[in-house]
Write a sequence for this structure.
């Protein structure tokens, strides 16, 4: 079946540091890939997505590239801010409209 | 344009009681999904509904759980005879329809079973 594996957190960074959160997946066919962000006490918000190989999703300074050869969709940001502190979820949609999520990676950004 | 609405935001039930969780999708969205988030875990798919139809309930526990999305009104996730293991955050999402359509999530209902 489909599965998503994310690096475990928490990840603690200083403001303006470079961020990478690794995500790899297992799926048959050609899934769509997503990153969602969850702020404390809130629901999930779509951060970015990519629907085919080599696509790059980007939003608010975050980027992720759909790499079929390595089955990866790593999230990156060049300079994090305190306001980026949240839990980040990688997810895939492999047919049937249901999302399969990773376990989430908590990011803490300190001044 | 209001987002996905869920209520209540917090729900406390004693073991054996019933829990009813409501979800109103975004305007124009006819597809609704329910996910459960257990403490320290990611979200797990439960059920996918369109108006008056259950499309996929492969993630629903076989007993005590049911879901509906009537022609009029919100989608309801119903948990009968709750147990402590049902304590979780339940998220609803909606989409306009179609494969890989972006799903928009509500704020969730946090169920606590005493």
């Amino acid at each position: 079946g489909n599965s998503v594996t994310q690096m475990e957190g928490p990840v603690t960074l200083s403001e303006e540091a470079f961020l990478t959160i690794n995500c790899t997946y297992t799926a048959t066919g050609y899934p769509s890939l997503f990153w969602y962000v969850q702020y404390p006490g809130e629901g999930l918000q779509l951060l970015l997505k990519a629907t085919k190989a080599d696509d790059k999703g980007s939003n608010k300074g975050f980027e992720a590239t759909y790499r079929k050869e390595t089955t990866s969709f790593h999230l990156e940001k060049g300079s994090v801010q305190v306001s980026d502190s949240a839990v980040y979820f990688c997810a895939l949609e492999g047919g049937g409209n249901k999302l399969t999520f990773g376990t989430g990676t908590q990011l803490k950004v300190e001044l | 344009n209001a987002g996905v609405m869920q209520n209540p935001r917090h729900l406390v039930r004693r073991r054996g009681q019933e829990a009813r969780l409501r979800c109103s999708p975004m305007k124009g969205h006819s597809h609704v999904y329910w996910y459960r988030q257990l403490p320290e875990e990611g979200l797990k798919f439960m059920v996918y509904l369109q108006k008056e139809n259950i499309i996929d309930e492969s993630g629903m526990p076989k007993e005590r759980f049911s879901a509906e999305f009537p022609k009029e009104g919100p989608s309801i996730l119903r948990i009968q005879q709750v147990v402590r293991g049902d304590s979780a955050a339940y998220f609803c999402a909606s989409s306009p329809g179609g494969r890989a359509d972006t799903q928009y999530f509500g704020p969730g209902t946090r169920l606590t079973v005493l």
User: Anything to note?
Assistant: The interface with chain A takes residues 4, 6, 31, 33, 35, 40-45, 48, 55-56, 58-59, 91, 93, 95, 99-108 of chain B (CB under 8 Å).
